[in-house]
Design a protein that fits this description.
Arc Repressor Mutant, subunit A; Beta-Lactamase; 2 domains; 3-stranded antiparallel beta sheet; 8 helices; Helix-turn-helix domain-containing protein
Length: 244
Amino acid sequence: MSDFVQSLERGLAVIRAFDADHPEMTLSDVARVTGLTRAAARRFLLTLVDLGYMRTDGRMFMLRPKVLELGYSYLSSLGLPDVAQPHLEKLALEVHESCSVSVLDGSDIVYVARVPTKRIMKVMIEIGTRFPAHATSMGRVMLAAQDNMDFLDTPLPALTDRTITDPVELKAELVRVRAQGWSMVDEELEHGLRSIAAPIRNKGKVIGALNISTHVSRPIDSVHTELVPPLLTTAEAISRDLPS
């Protein structure tokens, strides 16, 4: 592939090596995680430092806030976070639960807007957090909108003992979600977590998803009567407000 720029791929791999679990790393750490030689890793790290995307104390390397610019252009062009945020705030006040919006990126969902009300997950969710789509309510409403489901031809990883991992079973669930118009996932991403989601559309195409997260102690009847109606209403409102 003559047009493929390998150095760009490696530079991005260095940036992606840093995450919530690894906010600081040594040169050796980065080389090990990325598979680069120490010499190559050093060149990429020092270049990123010179460009302002990283800083170093001479031993440890850390990302700087400027790295957010790499994703801001995408979020700005999408328009979804800005449109969704006031709707999320209103919904969270109404249902007293955390509400989020995500988009689909390959086999993952990526959070682009969120209003937390209480923490019920072990993992801290922030803008940019990713989860496997098949184990999330938002992922399922977006996967259900796909015309081709061949990507589900192999077994999927289990995040809990309740995660659907059989492709046939998941395809059947996605068909049901598409017909119903919303999804509910119980303890498939994390024990104790129940979430519901509805699609967000632009020009008839599903471009994102809205969810409400709650604890499994909340009765199913309460979810159906108190959470699903405002979820669907808000998803429709966000869809209407998106630029056409």
